[in-house]
Specification:
Elements (H helix, E strand, L loop, with lengths): L6 H4 L6 E2 L1 E6 L5 E6 L2 E6 L2 E8 L3 H9 L1 E6 L5 H9 L7 H5 L3 E3 L6 E3 L4 E13 L2 E13 L7 E5 L2 E4 L7
Antiparallel strand pairs: 1-11, 2-3, 2-6, 4-5, 5-10, 6-9, 7-8, 9-10, 11-12
């Protein structure tokens, strides 16, 4: 039996969900990462992802200006970085440099991949939609990368609470 409750009470029941990190090169040349909880695949052909970024976030203007982004799905070993990338603005700080985050060049776009992520997807922005206090970007995947090791994924169990999945097992 369902009972009606305020939105803020019900929304926490959707967890756990995947954590992702979007990276885009700012006009000053610095690649800026932001941790996101609102991410989803939207198409197989062509492959696309949608990401949602708050109107007040520096990353919003960076992705708009770049017209492209990398979408990385972090491993459990990137928990501290994921928290940092979500809390600290890249407006005055080079977050990747501050954390010493291992990266490698993207192949098809002007950005970086997170070397220790489970997977990275290079995306070109093909659409944008204002949705209240957030903007949704649709990105078409132009290149995909996976880690050579089977790393466990990072999930969020609520705002500012991250949890790792179990080691992947082969079926």
């Amino acid at each position: 039996m369902q009972k009606q409750v305020p939105f803020q009470e019900a929304i926490v029941r959707k967890y756990p969900e995947p954590v992702a990190i979007a990276l885009a090169r700012a006009p000053n040349g610095v690649v800026n990462p932001i941790t996101l909880g609102w991410v989803m695949p939207t198409s197989f052909e062509p492959p696309q992802f949608a990401i949602s970024i708050g109107l007040t976030r520096y990353s919003l203007e960076v992705i708009r200006e770049a017209g492209e982004f990398v979408l990385a799905f972090p491993s459990v070993y990137q928990l501290e970085e994921a928290l940092y990338f979500g809390k600290v603005s890249g407006r005055e700080v080079d977050k990747l440099k501050e954390r010493g985050t291992p990266t490698q060049p993207a192949v098809k776009i002007d950005s970086l991949l997170l070397a220790e992520a489970v997977a990275n997807f290079e995306c070109v922005v093909v659409g944008e939609l204002l949705t209240g206090d957030h903007v949704i970007f649709a990105g078409e995947v132009v290149a995909a990368h996976v880690n050579e090791k089977p790393l466990p994924r990072l999930y969020t169990i609520g705002p500012n609470h991250l949890l790792g999945a179990a080691e992947p097992k082969k079926l």
